[in-house]
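Quick entry, no commentary yet.
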Amino acid sequence: MSNHIIPVLSERQQMSRCATIIKKRVLVFSPDADLARFLLMNLEDRFQIIREHRLEQFEQAIKEISPDLVLIDLFTFSIDIVKQLDIIRRTAVTVPIIALRAYMSLTPEINKSIDDLADIVFYKPVDGELITQAIEDLLK
């Protein structure tokens, strides 16, 4: 009979150890504080969430964080949507992108750009469980 020391970790330590190993980084861009809080509450158990709410910092956040996925809340105004899409193009994001957008009339060019750049598009209001499942599917 050999004497092996078996380390015993509390359940919290085990969860923490697993979480640091498997959590993927998701960059959430949303200027809407309520939507960002909703997304954070629904996603933080499964993913490492980094939130950016300022358009002028969005590009820098993509470059510095190197996220595994970008979740972008498209503004209501088409000029802001164009700016957001330009940032995605300029940074040459090669990770999956999920776009959240409102039901509204946009130009065919903007609609095409959204469809070309986003892997998945959800219309607001959004279902937290559907977004979580979409992220998990895209990160497989």
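second:
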Amino acid sequence: MIRECGCPSESPEWHNQDIDLAGQCIHTMPTSCFLHMPIAYELYAKRQQTEIENLELEEKWPGLSLTRSGMFRGQRIRLLTHNRSASRRISFLPGPFNVRVQIHKGNMSTVQIPVREMSIGLIESGKRPKELYISHLNCPNCMRTEGNDRIMLLRHWVDAPGLKRK
């Protein structure tokens, strides 16, 4: 269930774990970015929610969205239960699609240290870090009532045999 403000009411308990999301059904929404900063973030969030409701799709964790930003284009991903839909925005994650997850208690200005530590930990274990996905688990209104800002960081990684030798 999604809260009135749009935040997910529940989220997966994946803190400090490596998760394989291979074959996971997803709904993707391309977004606009400028220098890795999403433009009109709430507009895309509402548009994606409306499309999911119109297609009558079921989500594993309603309201949970993974955001990947780029220089000029980004992407919002919502995890769905397995669905058959003719929508062009419904697809499946490729296999293997391993992610390391960490929950950061703080805002975006303090996120660089946990991201760096996560990347170093992946390299030391012989895995090459790839894309970073960010999921805000609460909005500014919920942050005031619950007391802290929580951000789920998901770093996609692949095995790197060259790093294991070192």
